[in-house]
């Protein structure tokens, strides 16, 4: 029997991550990348000392109450931890970590792709060409919105928000933000702080969401707040679907109150919202904000760094519970 800690890697991770894990742990892998059921997840907690899950494995209070005492640590392969009931896990004495920083660039890239694509109607043009429907050209053909020189509002000026602000400056956008705390001037780098979310919304020709999903932020962009955005604004969400009232967003896009939206995250994942599919002015991606080779390796390694620290008796750097 191995004297190494037993680790379940709940989803198929990068080859480099799995190889490194196999060196230091007695690893249980999931080569088919199957999504385990709630019952299987609970049963697995009795077989291992540690789990390395993604945001697809849900540790609700109910699940947490049934986890085995053998399980000591959940080292998430995600920055978001809304799939974990942190209070319940803490009460059970199970350590929880996440993977901040390493996915900020990749996620901001996708946010900017959505912003540009939604503004310039890129998915619509792509669909037109694929369907063989590009039959004419005129000065009024597929006119979108210019990004350069416009105002971008950022909700949540954490790591991803700050990278997004830097990308936006490269496009000469004027950056405004709302955050629980005002940033230090060197991090703010000229961005305009709004103490009140509604004030930010009122000036945001583009709005990009970068805050975590918590009970306080769930439904943050509800009907009333969407209505506070300027006429013809564009909403981008790469954070979590729970932040947006999707029915209200559909209405705002249908009526043209909002010009477009770019979404990488949805209330229901996988699957998304079928009502969005009927709209031309929405650019959707299937939750791929952090999906680059570099970033996946970095996320896997960061999760393993946290496990290594824990099993060496040190405090994991990214402990969240
Ligand atoms: C994260 O890390 O939270 C991303 O959404 C991928 O899970």
Automatic annotation (TrEMBL):
A Pfam match is 2-Hacid_dh
Outline the extent of the D-isomer specific 2-hydroxyacid dehydrogenase NAD-binding domain.
113-289
Keyword NAD in record: yes
Q: Which GO terms describe its molecular function?
A: glyoxylate reductase (NADPH) activity; hydroxypyruvate reductase [NAD(P)H] activity; NAD binding
Report the GO terms under cellular component. Answer: cytosol
Identify the domain of life. Bacteria
Task: Write out the entry's keywords from A to Z.
Answer: NAD, Oxidoreductase
Record domain D-isomer specific 2-hydroxyacid dehydrogenase catalytic: where: 26-320
| Transmembrane spans | none
The record's similarity note reads:
Belongs to the D-isomer specific 2-hydroxyacid dehydrogenase family.
UniProt-recorded name of the protein: D-glycerate dehydrogenase
Origin species:
Pelagibius litoralis
